[in-house]
Design a protein that fits this description.
The chain is mainly α. It has 18 helices and no strands. InterPro entries: Na+/solute_symporter_sf.
Amino acid sequence: MLRFLVRNSLPFMFVFAILGFLLPSVSLAFFPFLPIVLFTLMSLTLLGMKQNELMKRLSSKEIWFYAVLHSAVFMGVVSLIGWFLSFDSDLLLAVVAVAATGSLFATPAIVRALGFDSLQAMAMTIATTLVLPISIFITLIFFQTESVELDWSSYFVRLVVFIFGPMLFSFLVHRFFPEEALSRFLMKISPYTILLVFAFPFGLVGSFRVLFDQDPLVALNYFLIATGLCCLFFVLSYLFYRKQGKAIALSAAITSGNRNVLLTYSIAGVLLGPAFLPLAGALQIPTYLLPVFTRWLNKTLLK
């Protein structure tokens, strides 16, 4: 059964998003455990990467140029779109916060399932995650209108736990454990780490279902905005990198389309306003359709 889920992991990500929508009480009950799953997934993903190769990728200008595109450029684009469409302040804050969000740590596993360079996707993911604190801080300074003050101590503790914690854990494990034994262990568990990804669409979509039950029209509006954001990030990144080849362009596109909204919420919490969690929930459905669409697009481009 586990092997079947791993082989068909891409469509099952979408299935779990639908299950979370159909079972909102279970989804909401599972939501508090998502940070633990997030930490575990980030740690296991980093453990499975070749540290030296990863550092080489992270030292390249191209990776950090992508991180700027992923955050700063898209933050500017969606803020202009939100202003043009007259979004209210809470919704504008939410969409800009989504644009500031780093890539999902499941992205390398998804990219590997598509047959592309997972190490490149991991470097992109880490770079966008490292610029997240700056991006979110800028977002809160310019777009947060509520009288909620930033708790600096809590903010930095969350940064350390959710961003630097998995990186430090991975470094220490590679430093003090025999590489041969570690490699055998990782070979056994690495195919199954992608199963942890199922928890995110299932646990996050419940907040969107609550909004749907309260006001279906507003929920539909959020869903359309979420779908528009995913498509915008995906298409612009693909167009920007298409001259570098299909593999790089699709890797950049899927990395840009996958947004780690749980990490952003874990760091900034209520400072992101009341619209962020419902929008994050609505994002789960188009986000986890993207890998399926990308696989189809990849096969289509081969013809």
